[in-house]
Amino acid sequence: MQNKKIGWRTSRFLGAPVIIGSAAVGGKKEGDGPLRDDFDILNEDSFFGEQTWEKAESAMQKLALDAAIKNAALAPSGVEYVFAGDLLNQCIGSTFGLRDAEIPFFGVYGACSTMAETIALACVSIDGGFAKNAVALTSSHYCSAERQFRFPLEYGGQRTPTSQWTATGAGAVVLSESGDASLPRVTHFTSGKIVDAGVKDANNMGAAMAPAAYDTLKAHFDDTGRAPSYYDLILTGDLGSLGSEILLDFFARDGVAIENHNDCGLMLYDREGQDVHAGGSGCGCSAGVLCGHILNAMRAGTLRRVLFAATGAMLSTTSSQQGESIPSISYAVAIETGV
Amino acid sequence: MQNKKIGWRTSRFLGAPVIIGSAAVGGKKEGDGPLRDDFDILNEDSFFGEQTWEKAESAMQKLALDAAIKNAALAPSGVEYVFAGDLLNQCIGSTFGLRDAEIPFFGVYGACSTMAETIALACVSIDGGFAKNAVALTSSHYCSAERQFRFPLEYGGQRTPTSQWTATGAGAVVLSESGDASLPRVTHFTSGKIVDAGVKDANNMGAAMAPAAYDTLKAHFDDTGRAPSYYDLILTGDLGSLGSEILLDFFARDGVAIENHNDCGLMLYDREGQDVHAGGSGCGCSAGVLCGHILNAMRAGTLRRVLFAATGAMLSTTSSQQGESIPSISYAVAIETGV
After folding, report:
1. Dihedral sign computed on CA atoms, order B82, B88, B90, B92
2. Could you tell me if the ipTM is greater than 0.90?
3. Residues in chain A within 8 Å Cβ distance of B105
4. Which of A176, A194, A226 is the last residue in one of the domains?
């Protein structure tokens, strides 16, 4: 078997799986934001026609899956695996969302890094010869996350300045072993390693996750020999404003100035006008930004090389109540056109 | 890329990854059961030296990982990925257990099917050319599961006759692209599909999961052309007594008599003497039975061909409280010696 690893953490996809379709789903707040025109589906109803917010999240996953498959001009029966996960306990956003899909399913848990983790695994399955087409899918919902991780919404608690706003959204990417030469392709992935810098403030996820993003991005640059400037965009998700500053500071200490960084949590909302404090977060934030705005720009040719490094904070309410710090992880995938 | 799929649901591993090491960890009740001699580590202390049951579960994952890597005669730096998950909210058994491991990590959520799901994904990564060595790992803990999913332990609630006992245990398998010819190898996997037959009783997981086990096993036999009798053992985990009956009944209706079935939930405990009602359950049940008893028997030559089909119930307390039924899934891996 040919070894595709080009370093301890990074592998090259020899077949460079093609993104033949994608779809982004959002709620009202996402539709009020600067990326509104890039969503495939926006719904003013935070329940998405369902009776509960958890069921609404499942409905969003189904909408994103169906729209992405349609955009890829595939039938559902043409998809061999769906890799999906979400933030809800036991990942019920995914399991109930995909219950009727009749597509083989791999459940994944990567917290807010899920969009990159599922893309990496879907590409491993395709490039490894186990599938022609596979889907990567995730979601989050402000209301289901808020009441699970923080407080009942009715309580109306104050939010700290470092807190981020969990996006209501879902995103799906359809990956294929072949496709039109103009489409974006996934060329590399860099695996995630759990990094815990000792941050205990569950209202400061950006600070908790920045060391993991640094660890993975540094591994990517080291393994590939690429400078950060190789990419048009180094896109983290979702460090928010504070986490992004910390990340750039880590690289600055290494003497590396990164000029081409942005963060999904800083892109999805108008931070001042929409009162989201340090920015957006949640699996649906990086998924919505990638599957809508970024992939649209890549298909339009305004972006050619994107390094997408989603980050996840692997805590639970129980771990925080027991005084634990926040282990974090980041997976990175290189998405390129014209390769 | 050579297509390794031999049917809609089943792939063949051309390199048949070798199980070069495994380890099973259990608690007091598991050490009182009939498989006591097959565990690598048994601990009378349900806290495993930690302050909480959740931290104890993480400690078990670390013990299982370290012991399996040692049994495989590898250094931790020789493992390229760990695929791991568990039942705790946000999979903190895995993320905290692996926090200091310095091994790239893929978080997986498959409920009690996790042992088979992680083996399948680890083999996909190896057989696809992305790793030489990878670990599949999972755990459960009676006390952390009971208080998360059911009642505080101090409440001392009565258990229904169909309920199963969540095992306190962890299991790890080290898979490699090569190894001694006498060792067990993973030759095939059959993907899981979410199946929901409408069962709503969260105290009857066996009934909820049996349709998923049937769906995956049937797909495996159809795709491979193998009769059930090809295997020395068809091992589900964990349907318990009622779920096992239902599974065999489904096959009987197809005119297929399965004589060589057993279930990890029926093997781990002395059902009568240890008061576990319908049997054992939890990720740690199938992991403990496979990584100890079964792989020991395969290494000793008393079992040669095992089809391991772990099953998971993809519910949460929230989904049950909202009146939902229980979506389930089963992943199957064929483990063989002398191939």
Report:
1. negative
2. yes
3. 191-194, 329
4. A176
